[in-house]
Design a protein that fits this description.
548 residues; alpha/beta; seven-stranded mixed β-sheet; seven-stranded antiparallel β-sheet; 18 helices; 27 strands; 33% helix; binds alpha-D-glucose-1-phosphate-6-vanadate; binds cobalt (II) ion
C-alpha cells in the first residue's frame, strides 16, 4: 500500500477550545481541513507527550453526527500512514465520550480521537468537532492542545495511504498497510465497568418493584448503552430508553439535555401518570440531565447531592477524599465538602482541568454546571453513569427523587442558580464587554446596585495543584456582600461569533423559601448582571437567547 505525502496550506483558527476543535461542518468539509488538523496532532505529540503514535494503539470513534462517517475513513488512512500499529474503531464509527475514556484506560491505549461537537446541533449546516484524549483517558491538557495549534500554523503536508474506505459495521479485524484495524463494540466494556461501580442487584430489585425510568437519548449516541444497561442488564421494561437510535441528524432534535431542548421529557415527568425518574444525555453522552416529578434537578445541585450521598454507592463506600467543580458551577458542593471535612477544588471550565486531580487521587468526584458529572472511574464526564448514580441512591433511600432534592436543601441550604447565554454576538463586542469588566475589576468593590453591593471581583486564574501550571483569564467573578455571585465568561465551544455566558447564584439558608422558582429568586441579580456589564448597550441584546 502506497503512503503518500499530500501538500496542504495551514488553516487559520485550528485552535482547540474548551473541548477540542469545534467548527461548522462546512468548515470541516473544506478540502484538507481534517487532514491538516489531524497531521498537526500527530506531529505535535512526540514533543507534547514524549512519544508519537508510531507503533502505538489508538482508539477512534464519534457520536455519529453528520460527517462522522467521512472523517473516520480519512483518519483511518492517516493513522496507517503515520505508523499506528493498532487502531480500535467503534462499530459504525460510534463511541460515546465516556466509552472512549473507558476503552483507552481498559486497553491501555496510547490515546484516542473523538469526533463530536457534543451538545451542539448537527447536520450539514450544524457543527462538527475533533478532540484528542491522552493515555489516562482524559482530554488532552492545554499544553498539548496548544502544541497542536502551534503545529497547525506551519503544517505543509499530511501523510495518508491510497486505500478504499474500510467497512466498519462488523466486529472484525483487518490489516491496512502495517496497521491492524479492529472494530469493537464499546457497550460491553462500558457496561462491565458500570457493574463494578453500582449495586446492580439492588437496581434490579428496584425495577422489579415497578420503578419507572424514562431515559431520553435524544437520538444521539447513548441509546445502545441505555438499552443494554437499563433494559437488558437491569430488567427495566423495553421502551425505558426513548429516542434511542443514534441518527446523523439527531432526528431533528438538539442533543442538549436541558429543560429547553428536552422539553418533552420534562412534560412526561410533570404531567399525568409520570415515571419515577427522567433522564437525558447529550450528543456524545457525557452530559446528563435528571428530572424529578417536580422538574429538572440543576446540575450544580445534582453534583452536591451525589457528593452528599456517595457512600451509598459501592464504588464510594469509603467516602470521598475530595471533590472539584468548575469555577462557574454553584457552590452547593462546597457546602457538602465543608461538612464532610474534605478538599474542594475550583477549576477552570472544561473537563481537562480535572485530569491531574483525579490522577493524583486528590478528588474522586467532580462536575460542572453545564450538566457534566463524573468520577475517577474514567477521565471524562459521564451521562449514563450519573443516571445510574441517582438510581442507586433512590434504590437505597427509597424516597421520591424530588424529596431527596428538598431534603438536601433543608440540610445544606439552597444555592439558587441560573445561566444566561447571549449567543452569536459579534466577537468584537463580546471581547469589548469582557475587557471592560477586566479593566474595572479594582473599582467594583463597594459599588451598589439596589440591595446588592459588590464585595470583591477578580479575573479567575488557576494554578494546578499537581503540576503547577497556570491558566489565567478564565472569567470575571463578582461577589456581593449578601453572598450572591455573578460570573461572566465567553464560551469556548461555540462556532458562530461569540457566546457570552452569565452565571447567577445566590445562597438561601431559609427552607421556607426553597420552593421558590430560581428565575424569581434571581430576578434582581439578573437585572444587576445586565446593568453591571452594560450587556444591552454593548451587545444590543435585551434578553438572553438561552436560559439554563
Ligand atoms: C461548555 C461548558 C463546559 C463544558 C464544555 C464541553 O464550554 O460550559 O462546562 O465542559 O462545554 O462540554 P463553554 O466553553 O462553551 O462554556 V461537551 O458536553 O461539549 O463535551
Ligand atoms: Co458532550
Amino acid at each position: 500500500m502506497n503512503t503518500v505525502s499530500v501538500p496542504v496550506t495551514p488553516f487559520a483558527g485550528q485552535r482547540p477550545g474548551t473541548s477540542g476543535l469545534r467548527k461548522k461542518v462546512t468548515v470541516f468539509r473544506e478540502p484538507g481541513y481534517v487532514e491538516a488538523f489531524v497531521q498537526s496532532l500527530f506531529d505535535a505529540l512526540p514533543e507534547a507527550v514524549g512519544s508519537g503514535v508510531t507503533g502505538q494503539t489508538l482508539v477512534l470513534g464519534g457520536d455519529g453526527r453528520f460527517f462522522n462517517d467521512c472523517a473516520i475513513q480519512t483518519i483511518i488512512r492517516m493513522a496507517a500512514a503515520n505508523g499506528v500499529a493498532n487502531l480500535l474503531v467503534g462499530r459504525d464509527g460510534l463511541l460515546s465520550t465516556p466509552a472512549m475514556s473507558t476503552v483507552i484506560r481498559g486497553r491501555k491505549a496510547f490515546g484516542g480521537i473523538i469526533l463530536s461537537a457534543s451538545h451542539n446541533p448537527g447536520g450539514p449546516d450544524g457543527d462538527f468537532g475533533i478532540k484528542y484524549n491522552i493515555g489516562n483517558g482524559g482530554p488532552a491538557p492545554e499544553r498539548v492542545t496548544e502544541a497542536i495549534y502551534h503545529r497547525s500554523q506551519t503544517i505543509d503536508a499530511y501523510r495518508t495511504i491510497e486505500s478504499a474506505d474500510l467497512p466498519i459495521d462488523k466486529l472484525a479485524s483487518v490489516q491496512i498497510g502495517g496497521m491492524t484495524v479492529t472494530v469493537i463494540d464499546p457497550v460491553e466494556e462500558y457496561a462491565a465497568l458500570m457493574e463494578q461501580i453500582f449495586d446492580f442487584d439492588r437496581l434490579r430489585t428496584l425495577f422489579r418493584g415497578g420503578f419507572r425510568l424514562r431515559f431520553d437519548a435524544l437520538n444521539a449516541v447513548t441509546g445502545p448503552y441505555a438499552r443494554e444497561i437499563f433494559e437488558r442488564r437491569l430488567g427495566a421494561p423495553v421502551g425505558t430508553a426513548v429516542d434511542a437510535d443514534p441518527m446523523p441528524d439527531f432526528g431533528g432534535l438538539h442533543p442538549d439535555p436541558n429543560p429547553t431542548y428536552a422539553a418533552s421529557l420534562i412534560s412526561a415527568l410533570t404531567t399525568g401518570d409520570a415515571p419515577d425518574l427522567g433522564a437525558a444525555s447529550d450528543g456524545d453522552g457525557d452530559r446528563n440531565m435528571v428530572v424529578t416529578r417536580k422538574g429538572a434537578v440543576g446540575p450544580s445541585d445534582s453534583l452536591a447531592i451525589l457528593a452528599a450521598n456517595a457512600p451509598l454507592i459501592p464504588w464510594f463506600k469509603d467516602g470521598l477524599p475530595g471533590v472539584a467543580r468548575s469555577m462557574p458551577t454553584s457552590r452547593a458542593v462546597d457546602r457538602v465538602a465543608q461538612k464532610l471535612g474534605i478538599e474542594c477544588f475550583e477549576t477552570p471550565t472544561g473537563w481537562k482541568y480535572f485530569g491531574n486531580l483525579l490522577d493524583a487521587g486528590r478528588i474522586t468526584l467532580c462536575g460542572e454546571e453545564s450538566a457534566g458529572t463524573s468520577s475517577n472511574h474514567i477521565r471524562e464526564k459521564d451521562g449514563v453513569w450519573a443516571v445510574l448514580f441517582w438510581l442507586n441512591i433512590l434504590a437505597v433511600r427509597n424516597e421520591p427523587a424530588a424529596a431527596i432534592v428538598a431534603d438536601h436543601w433543608a440540610r445544606f441550604g439552597r444555592d439558587f442558580y441560573m445561566r444566561h447565554d447571549y449567543e452569536a454576538i459579534e466577537t468584537e463586542r463580546a471581547n469589548h464587554l469582557i475587557d471592560g469588566l477586566r479593566r474595572r475589576i479594582s473599582e467594583l468593590p463597594g459599588i451598589r446596585f439596589g440591595e446588592h453591593e459588590v464585595s470583591e471581583a477578580d479575573d479567575f486564574a488557576y494554578t494546578d495543584p499537581v503540576d503547577g501550571s497556570v491558566t489565567a483569564h478564565q472569567g470575571v467573578r463578582v461577589n456581593f456582600t449578601n453572598g450572591a455571585r455573578i460570573v461572566y465568561r465567553l464560551s469556548g465551544t461555540g462556532t458562530e461569533g461569540a457566546t457570552l455566558r452569565v452565571y447567577l447564584e445566590r445562597f438561601e439558608p431559609d427552607p421556607a423559601r426553597h420552593a421558590l422558582d430560581a428565575s424569581v429568586a434571581l430576578a434582581p441579580l439578573a437585572a444587576v448582571s445586565v446593568a453591571l456589564a452594560d450587556i444591552n448597550g454593548i451587545t444590543g441584546r435585551d434578553k438572553p437567547s438561552v436560559v439554563a
